[in-house]
Amino acid sequence: MCGIIGVIDRKMEKMDGSSIRSALSMMDERGSGEGSGYVAYGIYPEYADCYAIHVFFDNIHETKPRVDELLGNWGWVIYDEEIPTHPSKLRKSHTPWRYFFQPNPRLSPSSETPDEDIVRNLVMRINTANNGSLVFSSGKNMGVFKAAGWPEDVADFYGIQNYEGYIWLAHNRYPTNTPGWWGGAHPFNLLNWSVVHNGEITSYGTNRRYVESFGYTCTMYTDTEVVAYLVDILARKHGLSKELVVKALAPSFWDEIDLMEGHEHYLNRAIRMTYGSAMMNGPFAIIVADHQSITGFTDRIKLRPMVAAESGNCLYISSEEAAIRAMEPVLDKVWMPKAGEPVIGRLF
Amino acid sequence: MTIGSVPLKYRIEIDDNRCMLCERCIENCPYGVFRRVGDKIVINSRNCTACHRCIAMCPRDAINLREHPVEYRSHPLWTVDARESIYNQARSGKIILAGMGNAIDYPIIFDRLVLDACQVTNPSIDPLREPMELRTYIGKKPPRLSIKKLPDGDIELLTKLTPNLQLETPIMIGHMSYGAISLNSHIALARAVTETGTFMGTGEGGLHQDIYPYQDRMIVQIASGRFGVDIDYLERGAAIEIKIGQGAKPGIGGHLPGEKVCADVSCTRMIPLGSDAISPAPHHDIYSIEDLKQLVRSLKEATEWKKPVFVKIAAVHNVAAIASGIARSSADAVVIDGFRGGTGAAPKVFRDNVGIPIEAAVASVDSKLREQGVRNEISIIASGGIRNSADVTKTIALGADAVYIGTAALVAMGCRVCGNCYRGLCPWGIATQREDLVKRLDPDTASEQVANLIKAWTLEISELMGAAGINSIESLRGNRERLRGYLLDEKMMEVLDVKPVGA
């Protein structure tokens, strides 16, 4: 069990973090106080062209110089600082740091997307080295804030109400497959992709082997991480639309595909045959965000709850309607999407 | 007579109180164990192969069989088999022939792997209430899809799919040739795969015209002897398989004795009546990987790129590197046959000593292909010693797309694994061409039994998947996270890439 919520203002009007903090607290029944987190898009306009690299350091003096050096070798750190934190009930087990980084594209001449590939490789390198630094956010003009604790405490620790974004995702964790530690809290992020997830992915072994064959390495001992990498491969590398990404991750049943005709039949069969190893199984409700959209979807037999709602320019996706109403009591429309059917909120 | 007779392998006894002298044992035993003298059935136990035909046919349960009724002095090194093989070869000066699979007591990796199930944190799925998908496509898959967005908002798929076999269950029946087994067995197997939505191999024996009605379910084989191969044969099959090697006898060819080459077999194989059918050890047009690549392409050209082409190799030490070479040809699937794979006839020294187990072979091939980023583009079919649905499930979790079964399908038709297939006297009408024996196998009943076996295993696989919270076989494939090694050594677990129980 976990609680998830996401919101997008499709006109890019910014919201501060106070309302999502109270929405997430509505779902404390779904958590255990061992992990909570938030991600917001549009929070660093003054560094919009830089990759905002958020890192957990175990020890500033020993581990940080190694990351400084690595980033220096692959580009330029425009600015860096400790992420401001405030006294709260949390035990501060890591020091969260942020770098605003510009990669040097000439160092990856063979790549079509050199900036992104350099950042992705740096994230994999730092995280697999496992020596006291963990990158937990690496997109542009966005950032993840997470820790082991209740939603309110994590929000107060980072002062989440001081950030303003037009997309927010948040997660209230009840850990089952790995202990509650800071890196294991959601959202999971790679480049501009962020993921919050309620459930357990029974196909994790298959998915992990699939992403590893594309050079990704799973380092956080939790199944959600693999979702971020799958989306990066399918959407960024293979150029599939959000709809097709969801079709690959939670495809139609063969019985349904057999009843389709012509182009639709061929396309659905092609997706399943090509992306069988990317398909996710087990109970899940997931929200994926990037700068343009949020996408919510569940497993093919909807073993986890997901509700969507609209109010003015805002689209909401959550585990519970009560959480959405904590953000916005007056909603134009509330609905329960069918199993496997995506809810996509795009900028106007 | 310096050696004299060796002790009996089996002792047959008849309980006179139960026997009613119906003589069914005499009729049924082609090895000549029984004859009638006056009011008694006289037994020659030395001829017995433990095929159980007499026991199965005795209406009074009067027959009893004991193995090794006479003890040698026991010795851990100089086993009965070691001594008897020496007596045999001291007399004959020849290679010892044997049937069925590896008979040495190697540890069975399958039995040291356990499967996972869901508890609390994720629900298990009940296959009786929820969809459970075992459909499997065998063949080349594109590495990615290319999509073009059209001005009207629609999308166009630029990627073209190549022909694949569509299986409704990941269980296929492996290649056992007409010649090695009887036509009735072939018909029974062909009907069974047609009924269960899967496929079977022809073996290197050509395609008999009585099988034509089931040709859409047949994978036609090209082996080093090229028996029965012409364009008509290639075009009739659903797929084509090039056989390089066989798990029961890696590195050597095949030999069908002339006695088994009756008129029908001679026509189907396109060889003279009564002649030995000898398949050479290598294909004489394949001396390296590029030659294989050419043959794959030639077969594809000949059939206008409409048929998937598989390549079958025996699981040998370097199987992963060989498979990765095959993956770089136009081949659609690589078939890996483990060292427990069965055979009609193989030199015992090969059957028992050459090759590696299928579990390790599948794991290393799957890992190697993934490392090289091509796993998704080629299918892996595994075979060699798969005994039940758990073995199938574990094989798929280790990385296979589908399995071939051979011995299990024969056992479903009555085979007792006596291992005398090469003698052509199979009392069950399976591994024989003798007309009176072939008639014993009713294709209707036998096909029902084989289909039942495939259905039963399919049901069990669905239940195992459901318990593991998986409703589609793609999510089981290569999912080694759902396996644990029980008392396997650390290195073995590294090869299999599984964790130990409790971890």
Major β-sheet profile of chain B: 8 strands, parallel, barrel
Q: Strand portion of chain A, in percent?
A: 25-35%
Poorly predicted ranges of chain B: none
CATH domain topology of the largest domain in chain B: TIM Barrel
Class from helix and strand fractions of chain A: alpha+beta
CATH class of chain A, please?
Answer: Alpha Beta
Structural class by secondary-structure content of chain B: alpha/beta
Structure notes:
- The complex is a heterodimer of chains A (348) and B (503).
- With 348 residues, chain A is α+β, with helices and mostly antiparallel strands.
- Chain A has one domain (2-346): Aminohydrolase, N-terminal nucleophile (Ntn) domain (Glutamine Phosphoribosylpyrophosphate, subunit 1, domain 1).
- Helices cover 30% and strands 28% of the residues of chain A.
- Chain A has helices at residues 18-25, 60-74, 114-129, 151-158, 204-212, 224-237, 242-249, 254-259, 262-274, 321-327, and strands at residues 2-9, 15-16, 36-41, 51-57, 75-82, 95-103, 133-137, 142-147, 164-165, 167-173, 188-190, 193-199, 284-289, 293-298, 307-311, 314-318, 333-335, 343-346.
- The mean pLDDT of chain A is 93.
- Chain B is of the alpha/beta class and 503 residues long.
- Chain B has 2 domains: 10-94, Alpha-Beta Plaits; 165-500, Aldolase class I (TIM Barrel, Alpha-Beta Barrel).
- Chain B is 29% helix and 17% strand.
- In chain B, the strands form 8 sheets. In chain B, strands 11-12-13-14-17-18-20-21 form an 8-stranded parallel β-barrel, surrounded by 5 helices. In chain B, strands 6-22-23 form a 3-stranded mixed sheet, covered by helices on one side.
- In chain B, helix 4 (183-196) runs parallel beside helix 14 (443-467), helix 8 packs across helix 10 and helix 11 (389-398) crosses helix 14 (443-467).
- The radius of gyration of chain B is 24 Å and the shape is globular.
- The model of chain B has no long low-confidence stretch (mean pLDDT 94).
- The A-B interface holds A 176-177, 199-200, 202-206, 208-210, 212-214, 237-241, 244, 253-255, 263, 266-267, 269-277, 279-283, 300-301, 303 and B 118, 121-123, 125, 130-131, 133, 135, 137, 141-147, 149, 155, 157, 159, 161, 164, 370-371, 373, 375-376, 397, 468-472, 474-482.
